[in-house]
């Protein structure tokens, strides 16, 4: 018996027609045109429920609502890193200083204004004041630590006597004597002395670093030692409060 009789018969593959021979879909399904409803709902955001009043909202409406909600959000509070930057003494700037005023008159006016303010440190209210910059007409002032928040010094106004800033005592006597000879000024009359109203603004961040660079080294060391003492005092108060509020341990309960 020959081997050809035992071979399996070959299967013929079905013939697949070409694209030209395939049947075409019906005309109504060939190019389905969008219905009027699809055109009307383009760019519309639907609500959560059919009965909701916000069932159909345009994209512009959604954007406006998000913007309004963002505007109603409260502003961020002050960063925690700025809370204790003035522990050793508040550093402020005094801007828009007239040419008739110098740093000595500013220091004197601030010492008189803040002399009665409670403070854990003895001495004058102003620890150091820089000279007035002739270009920016501003100066930096370092206060000693007080028992008030640094917000107290934000836009704090004070009056400066310009006459004491621009004239030395000898010049003042000469000008007074000349005025008395002319009959335009009487002794003890300060009505002609001009006063200027200035304000202080606390510094933070880069502005504070730039101001500290202009302070002498011994003033910076004094400020750092005061800040360290205030931190230690604050930590002691925190430890006392934590001991009072903490629950007693088992060993304490047994005793």
UniProtKB/TrEMBL annotation:
- Which portions of the sequence form the region Disordered? 1-59, 164-192
Basic and acidic residues composition-biased segments: 49-59
By what name is this protein known? Uncharacterized protein
Q: Which organism is it from?
A: Perkinsus olseni (Perkinsus atlanticus)
Q: Where is the composition biased (Polar residues)?
A: 164-179
């Amino acid at each position: 018996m020959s081997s050809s009789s035992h071979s399996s018969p070959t299967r013929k593959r079905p013939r697949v027609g070409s694209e030209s021979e395939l049947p075409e879909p019906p005309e109504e399904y060939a190019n389905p045109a969008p219905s009027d409803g699809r055109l009307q709902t383009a760019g519309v955001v639907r609500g959560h429920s059919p009965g909701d009043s916000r069932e159909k909202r345009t994209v512009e409406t959604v954007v406006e609502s998000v913007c309004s909600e963002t505007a109603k959000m409260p502003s961020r509070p002050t960063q925690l890193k700025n809370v204790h930057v003035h522990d050793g003494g508040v550093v402020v700037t005094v801007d828009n200083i007239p040419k008739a005023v110098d740093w000595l008159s500013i220091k004197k006016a601030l010492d008189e204004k803040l002399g009665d303010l409670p403070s854990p440190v003895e001495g004058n209210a102003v620890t150091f004041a820089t000279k007035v910059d002739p270009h920016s007409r501003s100066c930096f002032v370092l206060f000693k630590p007080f028992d008030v928040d640094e917000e107290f010094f934000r836009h704090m106004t004070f009056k400066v006597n310009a006459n004491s800033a621009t004239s030395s005592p000898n010049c003042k006597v000469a000008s007074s004597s000349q005025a008395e000879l002319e009959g335009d000024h009487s002794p003890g009359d300060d009505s002609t002395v001009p006063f200027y109203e200035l304000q202080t603004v606390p510094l933070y961040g880069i502005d504070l670093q730039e101001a500290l660079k202009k302070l002498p080294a011994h003033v910076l060391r004094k400020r750092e030692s005061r800040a360290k003492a205030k931190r230690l005092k604050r930590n002691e108060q925190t430890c006392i409060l934590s001991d009072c509020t903490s629950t007693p341990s088992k060993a304490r309960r047994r005793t």
